[in-house]
Amino acid sequence: MKGFNFEKNLDHQAQAVEATLRVFEHVNKVLPDGTDKQCINPLLDYKDFQYWRNVKELAKNNSLAGVEHDKRTNIIDIMMETGTGKTYTYTKTMFELNKHYGIFKFIVVVPTLSIKAGTINFLKSDSSREHFYEQYGKSLKLHIVESQTNKKSKKSYIPSAVNSFVKAGDFDKNSIQVLIINAGMINSKTMTEKFDVGLFDKYNVPFDAIAATRPFMIIDEPHKFSQDNKTWENLQKMQPQIILRYGATFTQTENLVYTLSAVDAFSKNLVKGVIGHITEFEEGKNALGKLIDTDGKEATFEVNEGTTKKSIKIGKGDSLSRVHPQMTDLFLEQMNMSKIVLSNGLELKKGDKINPYSYAQTLQELMIQKAIKKHFEIEKDLLTREVRIKPLTLFFIDNIDEYRNKDGHLRQLVEQYIKVEVESLLKTETNATYKAFLEKTLKDIDATHGGYFSKDNSDKDEAIEKEINEILHDKEAILDLDNPRRFIFSKWTLREGWDNPNVFQICKLRSSGSEISKLQEVGRGLRLPVNEYGNRVKDEQFYLNYFVDFTESDFVDKLVNEINEKSGAISIEAIPAKLTEEIIQKITEAYSISEDDLLEVLDDNDVIKRNNTFKDGGWDYIKQNYPNIFQGVNSSKIRKATDTPKKISVRTEKYAELKALWEKLNEKVVLEYKFDDEAQFTTLLKDFFTDLKSKFKVEGLQNRTKKIIAKDYEALLDEEVSIFDDEITPVSTMLYSDFIKELAKVLHINLKTIHQAFVDADIEIDQYLNASTIRIIKQGFNEYLMHNAIDKFSIGYQNVNNSIHPTKLTYEDGSPKEEINASDIGVQMSEDKVADNYYFEELFYDSELEKKNIIEKIKEVIVFTKIPKNSIKIPVAGGASYSPDFAYVLDFKNGEKQLHFIVETKDVSGDNKLREEEKQKIKHAEILFDGAVKVSFKTQFSNTKITELIKEIYR
To answer: How far out from the chain centre does Cα 8 lie?
Structure first.
């Protein structure tokens, strides 16, 4: 594989970048002065009142929780779930802050060496450097702070990374300076001691020299940097003017400007789903070993098994088989007064429990066998496709020597299971390319797997070094289809800072010990996969198979609960005992009803008791009448392997009537804009600028009066702004040439055309040369294109792929599927009877409006179907899309002719603006279908019956 191809404008990443930039809109910018000014960032003053206005406005617009924790600090929080591209997002943010505000010195702070290595690999990779250089014409220059080696020199020098970072100036127009440092180095003596040879003849301490540059600081994994510990205290010694914290987990947010929750990540298919495989082992289910105490010399365990209880003491280097005979090949490696570390990397604190049988050899052999068998099932599917995807499986193991040694039991077992599966596949495989890959595998089974363990860092074996390089540093190499390696072995060393998008399985051959986040555990394999060309594959539901032993039989439940709790979501599948404050709040917000009125309705309908616990059928009433409150992750995304996904049966005999409409809907097309000449487009752009005049804001000189007032025993800053209408002296933050170049880039429009449109619109654009204007124009122009397409300019659709099948309803040969996943139709289920002319047997739906449509039997309808989710997206001018919900085939003139009818349901009443927007989308769809299949399009709002829309069609 040549390399990964990063997508430029994924919505969730672009929104995070945009939110961060908007924090600094119109904030006072102070340029550096003095002899060293070329080495210092401009200052964006977080004490400027505009900064706080921006933060509050962002929180309000995005309905973000946690804003009440605003402490008026320089900290900005961006919450993004694991696997959604945090590193990419903060990297793009660095480029954007440099472009808009001239910030060119950043510090990236990471908690561990493994995360540091992963960050450096990403930032240094050819793929990412080419990707960002193409957009910005610049590259990142990395300054990596490493531990100092003792050199025999009379003078001591500030670390070279700090030296080069501090001395770098803005005269290097092609680079952005990035210092990378981990927590260990932040707390090291290296950063606080005085050196003989300093910087600029005044800074002898590294922290002081860094602070002089006014750096922007980016903190990865903020929950690892508690504000009451030494690391945070040392971070402040670098005096960052702004701290941007990126993470999936926060101990407490301060100024939260963007959030992508775990539920959002799973529901929007931004990450893989998860299937939990639990290996049962009846013997010893109730056995427990508990660490009672450690004094640094001896550790005391209490073992409970059946009716017996015993206490055992062991010391450093002792085998845990003394604690329980099943824990062979496991040793006590390190210990102090509060915790011990076992030879498999597992940390146990006082009170932590493990099940000795989870280390039993027979149990681990069974798990390995199941994982390898499942791997080849997945591999056969993914490597026999037209565009192939290479899957990987990751094993976490206990005993390194049993894997590393050529005659080790674990290594021999793995190779034996691989050989059995490959030989079995070769007997029946007909795909020539995959067959050749399997034959190559069989010739050198040793090459199919590799490992990384911390002790490998001191190993000079060339083969091992190659394995480590592929696993840690060269993702492209391990995903190359000429490379047979696809099984990776490690201790818990790879649990953070490392991931590969093509990990489809994780097999955990060890007990978890202390409670850790289940979401963090699966995080190594959540990213969506890339195909053989390095492109992210996103239009399909992929799953991470996660193998655990019987001691974690509740793994899936805990993962679902963690996701929902962390996201503040209510799951439709969990059954609560009572009506909680959270449920009440969700209903009152979603349905605009007061709490008193809600409780009265629930009392009248016999839903709850006086103490708010649910009566029989009470929770079902909530689900049926208030479906919009449920946003939790559902079982189609995360489930046990033994829980087969709910299916919905298809009435296949009805497909023939639906075929022409369905195939037309599934054509792969791109949208084309059609203008007669450049003059027509210039006129359109001029009209847009004229319409937008009223939205432009002048960045001018304002008189601000600030005073301190006391309110609720708290001192607050009160600010009054006075704008002297005609007396404003216009101030712009960009040169016209830079402004128009940037505008041309974001709109993809010729420079001369934009300039001429400004002149024709008679806009004094010199007053508006700032980043805010560019954002307003970009957003407004996309909307303007959608609303004026067809009336002011023509559009067309061009087929890009002749193949239509397979689809959500059909196989590759075009024949109808007998059943599909119910979650593709709806997350709610009812026992009510569906209409006889409905395409499916059962009733699954997402809203009450959909339910009514599915139940209603209409004589004139030959067949109708709910359109599966994420299956149809018709491109619309301005970058939007049209995704209808129902397709109807209607009988017309006694069967002589058929009418086709497409409906998009909106379970709201629909204001005028929304109705106009829907009309425009429908006009686009009508052009796509013009002539091929006669189709009528409608939008159904909650106050419109489906029968009324059908009557309109017949009229």
So the answer is: 15
